[in-house]
Protein 1
Amino acid sequence: MNLPFLPRLICLCTALFFVVHLLAGSAVSLLAPLIVRWAARLRAAQAAALLCAVRLAPATLGACLVTLICVPSYLRFEPPGPSEEVGTFCLAGSMLCLVVCAISIGRTARAVVMTARYAEHSAGVALLGIFRPRFFVSADLAETLPADELAAALRHEQAHWSAGDNIKRLLFLLSPDLLPGWSGFGRLESNWGRLAEWAADDQAVNGEPQWSLSLAAALVRVARAEVAARTPTLASTLIGERCDLAERVNRILNPQPPRLPSIPIGWMFTSGAALVLTVGATLSTILPNSIYRVLEMFLH
């Protein structure tokens, strides 16, 4: 198919993003069981941060390569001119990229609608919203929860707000699947959800035995009161969608120390991102002609 200058650039960028995301995401998907087992030996907050970073790494890598290498090289060396032929492989990659991105946008829009309707049908405790989150407690629970249990539940939701968990949920939704109909990240997302709840529990009780009792009691009371409704994706609820209630209560009442010492996860991934940015910028400066020839081969 012959395409003019700008559509060729769009086709190249989307196809390259799809290929990089698919390769990196497939590697992450294969390694997910090992990563999850290793994360289980860390503190819950660190483990959740690790799984979040790994989940978003393929999309971040693809976006960085397209932004730092593909676009600058193409704009520098590809002269605007008549239409040129684009190969079948590149076209297919571009089409698949557009499909998976459309799917991610659609599910994000659906999650926004479901979250907006949550307060109308729920009997629970939750943190709703992304950029201006608000705490939600149903009227029935506000009247029936003892003061100490309500305070424990709100501390739990405050911990979700401090960790930015709803923003992370939004990023998970916006990050595309590996292929249409196959996410490839289900194990990471489900375990992140469990660990995020554990981390919020830890921050809510802060090692205080009385607070532990209050939070455990609140979990049981709210679990009995909540209606059987699907938890909206863009909300952090007290019960959580992917958590075993008995396991959480036992963990709150009988805390165990982590089996691995704390590690600087934030520093590690910040350094890794800085390294990718530096390498990309360096390659674009030192080997611009070589990169452009590779892009030309990929395009045709």
Note: Residues 2-256+264-299 form one domain.
Protein 2
Amino acid sequence: MKKIITHLNPDLDAVAAIWLIKRFLPGWEKAGVGFAPAGEVEDVDANPDILYVDTGRGKLDHHQTADYLSAAMLCFEYIKKERKGEQLKPLEERALEKLVEVVTQKDNARDLDWQEVKEDRYQFYLHNLIEDLKGLAKTDEAVVNFGMEALDAVLLGLKNQVKADEELTKGIHFQTPWGEAIAVESGNQNVIWRGEAKGYILVVKKSSDTGGVRVYSRPDSKVDLTKAYNKVRKMDPKSDWFLHASKQLLLNEASANPKMRPTKLSLEEMIEVLKKK
């Protein structure tokens, strides 16, 4: 039986290395996981059915060098080489590159923004959650299992982020009284957050599945969607709309209320409403 061995008290890099191998190295999906004291292991790479990651001083460990590396980075490169004819899908590979880079930054202490670290939300980040699980006296196996499921979710989010960036390149740019906006037909909620992150003052998403519309504006803006709210209710009285108390969020669909009736208004009609003062 194949087995992956990492060090006791696994950190994010060790967990990510195990996750990469079990999820993306053919034949290793059911590999067992073991834990050993960190350090050098004799003939660490001798047995093809045992992979030492983030420990052992072998091909998938980086502690014998001062180079900018991580076990996750080494495992990712090893996996791509070993898959040979069965290449990763382009979207998956791009998302994995982003994931591995963040893990590598963290493992080399290059992710620290001290203004961010002092914020309470820093305690919600995956690498801190893994450390805190160990503080709860969870077993190493429990830490790995939690980390693997969390990384599945992270990968999905990164894939959606990559897709959102691609969809935004096809969006319709337009001017509002508050600044430049973009409108996109998509089933991907990430287009809203990525659009805001790219600097658009307002992002309009019309669902490609239901036709429902979401209008988000940047929280640091002076956008007031009250007039747009009143206008769309008159134009399409048989649809449901919700205007957030901030006046910066206008919803015609919400995961918390699946009974909302989607609008019949087209994306172009929504743009014309939002262009006006």
Note: The first strand starts at residue 3 and ends at 7.
Protein 3
Amino acid sequence: MNKRITYNYLEDYIDLLRSKGKYTFTLPKLREQFNLSEEALGKALQRLKRKKEAARIRKEFYVIVPPEYRSRGVLPPMLFITELMEFLNRHYYTALLSAAAIYGAAHQQPQEFYVITTKPVLFPINSDKIKINFCYKKQWGDVDIVDRKTDTGYLKVSSPELTALDLFYYHDRVGGFNRVATVLEELSESMHAEKLAETASRYGQIAIVQRLGFILDEILDQRSLASPLLAYLKTVKHYPVLLRPQKGESDTMVTGNEWKVVPNIDIETDL
């Protein structure tokens, strides 16, 4: 039988969690630990929130806010996203602009935290304190996911190579192709050519590989990164594609480049 523990104050429980290096708690866990009515527990939580010592992220999931983060009113997502996704029983990885920023490719610090997970759909977390944007895939390979150490544990992050491919796939979620190219220019410093080709071969979206290779080669002059992608494309069937996807085809699908990409938009980076 589990021993039930009753604390006089919820603050004592928060201090205990922090002493163990934990910065999250859930309402179901509080119910297990305290012999309190729902009304009393609710009032205790409201007191913590008023003091900015805790913040609710999603229904029944809370984060502890240490003094150094009180001014922003919430813990940074990278310090609790693993626990949140475990609570929601979802596989995940930190992705897109958030992953790129971890690798130092943050020309403009993203205002949202980007997570890729599986369906069913989760509503985005959007408040004046925090924004978490969820994108979706059916599956991915763990070989392309990196565990990064944080102050609260480990964070699952897409590799630089997977991050680059995802930026093209979800270009409309991150500000368009100019921003993708700008981030890619910095991200390329963390990428490895052979690993990029290996990741691309697992990605399952040939058009994305073509667009990525075209930008690396024709726009960013990163031929050393692009060459293994081109070698991979020569082993699979691929057809002319528009750089920027749109309904229907362009007036002409003549590409004029070995990537078979129709440059239907002009690309300008901010660097």
Note: The mean pLDDT is 91.
Protein 4
Amino acid sequence: MKTKAVISLKFSSQKGLKSFVEALSPEINHPISNQAKVHLEKKEDFVLLSVDAENTTTLRSTLNAYLHWMTSMAKVVELLDNS
């Protein structure tokens, strides 16, 4: 069964948004599984991450990996914006 999830993050600055997308791009360009397709898109002050997977197990594991990276990068961007 094919599954899909979309995650959106709002950024307070375009600089932070750009930094986030650039940092995550290597992970998008080299997916962790050939059973899932990951797409990253900028829309205004949001980043949209969509994951299409062959099954729910692959979707869950792919989301867990990307959410971990996204959380780490968002914290770094927040620190940079506040300094």
Note: Residues 3-82 form a domain with the TATA-Binding Protein fold (CATH 3.30.310.50).
